[in-house]
Amino acid sequence: xxxxxxxxxxxxxxxxxxxxxxALRLLLSEIKNAEIEKRGELEEGxxxxxxxRSIKKRKEAIELFEKGxxxxxxxxxxxxxxxxxxxxxxxxxxxEIEKIVxxxxxxxxxxxxxxxxxxxxxxxxxxxxxxxxxxxxxxVEKKLKGEAKENG
Length: 152
Prior knowledge:
Elements: H1 2-14, H2 18-38, H3 44-67, H4 71-85, H5 94-108, H6 116-127, H7 133-151
């Protein structure tokens, strides 16, 4: 994956694609810093987490730029998010998450809201990088609160 990012950065440089070049340079810099901190090469999952963090920062910046009326900066950040999103694995849909949550809840014997943590731990460990944590938490809470009513 790291090699693909480097190749794409060279391609962006040749094509004079400033947005992609800027986003990929910053990403490679963040990856390099993480490697220095770890004192070794990063695994693909760690690189994916860095990309997700980078996208999250840009989404937060978009909110601030929108409040400040800086549409040109909003557009730039959105384009950078598009560039970075290409390196992420496809996320699971809400329907897929609901199905998986049902299976995991059964496996761990979840009965109600007190078991949300159990289900979330298992869900995130199996599907880290492919699942939106916020959406997953909403689905797990809805499912387990519903089961608590059925059992209660």
